[in-house]
Write a structure and sequence with these properties.
Helices cover 71% and strands 0% of the residues. The chain is mainly alpha-helical.
Length: 292
């Protein structure tokens, strides 16, 4: 790797350094706080990717993590717009979102209480909120208004127990719950996969969200190895990436299929119809996480 990187950086460095050394103070301060002052100077300012490999690895991980968090703020927006536009939850599994949201709120609490860097899990909080909105809309458009209210209330109570100083869920119990998110994350994808298969089409399932979930879970495998190396979290992301790849393959296979067997196709928001988001950077979801 050194033989590949050194010649490339040697060519770019004379053009890069005059620019990087003139970055505004707030940007320098933010960069140094993310990757340590030493790594910021070495990798970002001087574009030295060879001298200290650990700094290069950390900088890449932080860059990926920050991109995931930024992109995750809109990862479920196409799905929300699709549901609202069609006023239909066809092809979108509530049980899948319920299990995924349950896994996400536990994962968020675990990361916060373990004191892990925000760059390794920040998208979990953003996607969690969007998941609650999607799940509520699914119930609403399925004629289960009372169920939607109960769903939101139930998660509010759970959040109080996980994040509040109630003493109900201590670190040991939280560790057990975190272990449970691995099968939860797996089970959360199975209803979605089955729903697409049963309907013979993706319906209102957002292709944009599915693709970003896949890319995000793959990227999170790298950031977890680089910054936390937590076996529980890593296992979840590996399994999530595998199942997200199945769901992504289904969206490709059923690309032009009707919303469900025996029904006419319904309009489904795609990338260019919803938010105009064109970045190739991954998000998590799932997950950005876990599908992240």
């Amino acid at each position: 790797m050194e033989r590949i990187l050194a010649p490339i950086t040697d060519i770019i460095r004379p053009f890069w350094v005059p620019i990087s050394t003139q970055f505004p103070a707030p940007i320098k301060s933010l960069g140094a706080s993310l990757v340590t002052p030493e790594c910021y100077t070495l990798v970002i300012e001087n574009l030295d990717l060879v001298t200290v490999p650990a700094c290069t690895k950390l900088t890449i991980s932080k860059a990926i993590g920050t991109a995931i968090i930024g992109a995750s703020s809109i990862v479920k927006v196409p799905q929300i717009l699709s549901l609202i536009s069609s006023k239909s939850a066809d092809g979108v599994s509530f049980s899948s979102y319920f299990l995924e949201t349950l896994a996400y709120i536990i994962t968020l609490a675990y990361n916060v209480r373990q004191g892990f860097p925000f760059s390794t899990y920040g998208e979990t909080a953003l996607i969690l909120v969007q998941n609650i909105v999607v799940a509520t809309l699914i119930l609403q458009y399925s004629g289960k208004t009372a169920g939607a209210a109960a769903f939101v209330a139930g998660f509010a109570i759970l959040a109080t127990a996980l994040f509040g100083n109630t003493g109900i869920i201590d670190d040991k119990i939280l560790g057990y719950l975190m272990s449970a998110t691995i099968p939860l994350g797996t089970l959360s994808k199975l209803p979605a996969i089955y729903t697409v298969y049963k309907n013979g089409g993706t319906g209102q399932l957002s292709r944009f969200s599915v693709l970003n979930y896949l890319l995000g879970s793959i990227a999170r495998v790298f950031t977890t190895l680089a910054e936390t190396n937590d076996t529980l979290i890593l296992t979840g992301f590996v399994l999530g990436a595998a199942l997200n790849s199945v769901l992504a393959a289904q969206t490709v296979y059923y690309w032009n299929a009707p919303a469900s067997k025996g029904k006419k196709p319904e309009k489904s928001y795609e990338l260019n119809e919803s938010v105009g988001y064109s970045s190739g950077l991954p998000t998590n979801t799932g997950a950005r996480n876990r599908k992240a």
